[in-house]
Amino acid sequence: MKLTEMKQILTAGQIHLTKSLGQNFLHDHNQLGRIVDAAQVQDNDQVLEIGPGLGPLTKFLLDAGAKVFAIEKDRRLYEFLREHLGDNPKLRLLHADALKHLREQPTDWSEWKLVANLPYSVASTVLVELAKSQSCPSRLVATLQIEVAQRLMASAAHGDYGILTLLMQVRYEAGEWFKIPASCFFPVPDVDSACVVFVRRKTPLLGRSQSLIFEKIVKRGFSQRRKMLMKLLKQDWPAEVLERVFQELGLSPTIRAERVTLEQFVQLTQALDS
User: How large is the average pLDDT for residues 22-36?
Assistant: First the structure.
């Protein structure tokens, strides 16, 4: 779908896009192809797409042989997709709030891939929601604001490192990512975007119950970034327990959360769960 065609469709349908829904549609065919390649889509792969818009990525996914479940919140766009792509037997369309659907309709996503140009307003929340699910997708390929992408891919001691980084990377290994210029979207957003790739870890770093403890530790640790991690964790664990565990793990009692690696947070979780 070329940009001129996209504009004609929106004008003819009197569809006015809204910033609140994060409606910036990717129209550049080269970038769409790169996204599908990054997803390593094979024939009959099950793909979840959130926010398909006018369906340019949907069409690429279908052409690659994927079975696509596309969730669109905007009724006008859902009707357009149903009219123009609805007869494809490999496409299932749902008019719904994707985040609400994910939370209220537990699904085994373990054999699925997420491939989506995510609405900016909910991108990080959607990714974390999927990552935290017991049966999370095997691969996440998402286009989002470049600032969010940098936070997702960050490492310890980097300014972008934080809660979002850790909640994603505890379940997924960060793969490649590439920048997508703002000019590749319509309407043109105020910021550049990036496509990120996450591959589910073959062996989980933590069990289900420990994942909840991990999240508690991480959120507490970054609740006040300039404070020492041990001091913050004393709100939830006895001081003598923390002092012993930090010493066993070789963690300085004055270390801040931003300098604690993923592996060290995992070890801390396991130690405090014992």
Answer: 93
